[in-house]
Please model this.
Amino acid sequence: MKKYFRLFYDIEFYRELMEKNGHPIRQIFFLIVLSTLAYSIFAGVGITELITEAKDYVVTEVNDFKFEDGKLSVTDNDEAIIFEDGDGIVVIDTKSQLEEAFIDNYNRAIYINAEKVIQKKSQFDTRIIKFEEMNLGFNKSDVAAFLENAKAFAPLIMIPILLFQLISKWIYVLIVGIIGMIVLKIMKVDVDFKYLFKISAYIITIPTILTIINVVILNFLMPLMSELNLIVIVGYFILIGKGLKKNKSLNTEDNNDKIS
Model:
């Protein structure tokens, strides 16, 4: 574990990895596991909180309702429930007190009555879903129970996050290796790309940790995160390039001394 702390302060360690077997695959796997766990916990907690808020809203704010035999009925709802947002509107009107044509006044609208849902996405795109075509039956208690049970599935968010990390980390290492090749070419330092790939697997450790801190702990409060990571990456390659040039110069001097 001490090896990983050296990544933060010892630039010489990066140069050592160029000459030794740095196990880049093992390092990439470590970062994949670290990122997956961090983001899964973050996303899982967020999803659980969102589901809890939705359930509490249904239990405390929504009138009792029942969907049965292709019809929706809402208890103690003599007036239509209307939510307006600019040029959009959502209306729940199970007693059919309003004319359906009123949604023509809005660019976006969702109108729900006892028998159907009308979804208007634009003046030219309107869908109608009839409840009689849906073989469903549920009420308010069923919805609240479903939301409560849904929290148990929050950990499953780890699966898509893991798949994303499996792909993105390899691409990330490849991109960092290309950046390193450009930086070292500018510095006129010749290095084989397979060594750059190996060292890139370790260089992305710090940007990965910084990104996790920004997302999980700071909740995206740190601006220009990508730019900061790029500066870190380029900075490490510049220091590595300087070290390689220095070592090459020392080796040349030693060879000249031996010849003399």
In short: The chain has two domains: 11-47+155-246, 71-135. Residues 71-135 form one domain. Confidence is low (pLDDT under 50) at residues 252-260. Strands lie at 65-68, 71-74, 81-85, 88-92, 108-112, 116-122, 125-130, 138-139.
